[in-house]
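A quick aside before the break. I want you to see a complete sequence-to-structure record at least once, exactly as it would be stored in a machine-readable document. Don't worry about memorizing anything.
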Amino acid sequence: MDHIRVSKVEQMRLVRSGNNTEYVGTLHLTTHHMIFSAGDLELWIPYPMIHSAVLVRPPRRDSDDNMQAVYTEERALEGSIRIRCHHFLFVTLRCTDIRRLYDVFATVKHLACVGSLEQLYAFDYRSDTADDAKAVEYDAHAEFRRMGVGVAGGVGQHWRVSEINREFQLCATYPPVLAIPARISDTTLTYAARYRSKARLPVLSYLHPNGASMTRSSQPMVGLKQARSVQDEKLVEAIVATSEPTGMVPRFRNERNNIIIDARPTTNAVVNRAIGAGSENMDHYRQCRKVYLGIDNIHVMRDALNRLADAAVDAAD
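That is the input. The structure line, written in tokens, reads:
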């Protein structure tokens, strides 16, 4: 609360990108949200969603009687705050009281830049009732049961839940509860994890009611010597087999309906072999085919996103 210079501003004007309508209403600044309300419109913007905020100061007037013609309109004498959010929401705030506008900008600047995770709303929220607190609890076992994992006679009968990562010792970036093929032991998982970057072995992300599954993993540690892992190959084969009624892959079927998707460009996957990583050798993964999506690394994608956002701002102006 120390950083909130002003908690409420009346007669604030707001314009959203893509919409020329100007709303006149009330701006509320809380510890975790910026809330604008005008009639039926109520816009909530959490501070962590704010990518950037720019304060546009009003032009200075030399004297009350001597002003440039370009500043004769009332709005030209106002300052504004241009806010860009991470989810492509662009808003412009205007106010005739320039001091209030400065206070709003200073408040947003401090509250949007948190010093620790404990300052985020998720750690600060306290429910008024026990029922509300219970409703937000996430139960991984219940979620897997909802998808049918481990349910006898269902589409997920060939899957099981493993708690091998309950202390995050297998993979520091995976949850403690994992869904894996039922015929794969925890010991096999331990060896398979060594073959994947940062031990992110293939595990279930989503199970469709028709039995098709979506799993995720990191790149394999193939390297220049084309290393392979029998345990990783067995794990992928078992994942493929979960969609079969018997839970086993037919030995003589040549169809390749199962897809391994590599989000990177082909060049990036090949170059990564020099640092001990790479991509799956499809000679060792039966009934699977591989598709490259051609998505560049995070640095290239971030630059493209920034250029797209800049173009959207220019179009709005």
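Two observations worth writing down. The first strand starts at residue 8 and ends at 16. Residues 58 and 79 are 4 Å apart (CA to CA). We'll return to this after the break.
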